[in-house]
Amino acid sequence: MLNLILFGPPGAGKGTQSEMLMSRYNLNYISTGEALRNEIKEGSPLGLKAKTIIESGGLVDDEIIVQIIGNALSGGMRSEGFLFDGFPRTYVQAYILDGLFTRLQTSLTRIFILEVDEKECTKRLLQRATEQNRSDDNALVIKRRLQEYHQKTLPLLEFYESTGILTPINGLGTSEEVFDRINNHISEELNRRPANVILFGYPGAGRATQAARLASDFNLRCISTGELLQEEVQNNGALAHKIIPFLNNGLLVPDEMVIRLIEKKLKDTDGTGRGYVFKGYPRTLVQAYILDGLLKKQGTSISCVINLKVPVLELIRRLDARSHTPSKMPYDGSAATIVARLEEHEQRTEPVLDYYHQQNQVIEIDGTGADEVVYNRLQEPVLRAIKNMK
Length: 390
Known about the structure:
Mean pLDDT: 86
Number of helices: 16
Number of domains: 2
Oligomer: single chain
Largest sheet: 5 strands, parallel
């Protein structure tokens, strides 16, 4: 998830940037005042309690605020993250937000501070007051608001100073220029996040092509069990003599051997990419559980599962065409062997797909059309899945 706080003095342009961020990243806007008004409007027990305090001239305490913000967070879990305005406002509320995120198994991504000097802020606010005929926004009121911002914000910045997520942004220029500065930091953040993608699809669906493109664009390492087995044999590795009889007889290599090769590959590529794209693995439900365990040892998990969907007749046509090229596979020889291979794939992989469907991790992609067209269909969903990981 992408969880942001946007700080900035009155007149810095927080409202405009908030709208642009929410639109671009599908973020849920969390405002203490708005959340409080919603609870009061709905007549909830919390809202009634807060209304009584406000009508008596008191300030709503943090005990109520934490519950109201918690409700707002739970109600916005279908979004792809949160953008906070007016919360936290105090040192105590900063700790409260940490606790709320811990409960949701997520964390604060970044805090942006729009830096605009007082002279420019005053100029903007006075101009806005004239344009909107707001007599309450005079020079004296604006000065007081700016002083209040600095007094309240400084302790919060000290709270977050050691976290490494404070990001000052030059707030001068057009709205688009300021947004580009913010967006560059968000893009860098998303590109650092661990990512692991599984690419499903029948033989002929184009997995190899799309896996290579994903690996290149997302800085992933491609892992294909078929290639790992061939490499082990060609390099006369420690498991080669055990693997060869299975390959020669067209049998599946036992999981305990495949695991060793994948573990070795993960170790060899550790630290050289942000994650992996898996092609041809897992092929069974057992292997799906094994892969979960292998990634858990690395402190990561599956980001998403792409299922390339291509009609059967198109698959047969593609595989028949491939049989006349140097990239021909053993089962490309005849219509009978092609159909048998497709049937075998369906029997083995459907339970695996069902498993990932239950985890809400499967993204169905139309695999027909040119390679570039198919890639354009899957690129954005993959990026969104990586962004939404807690």
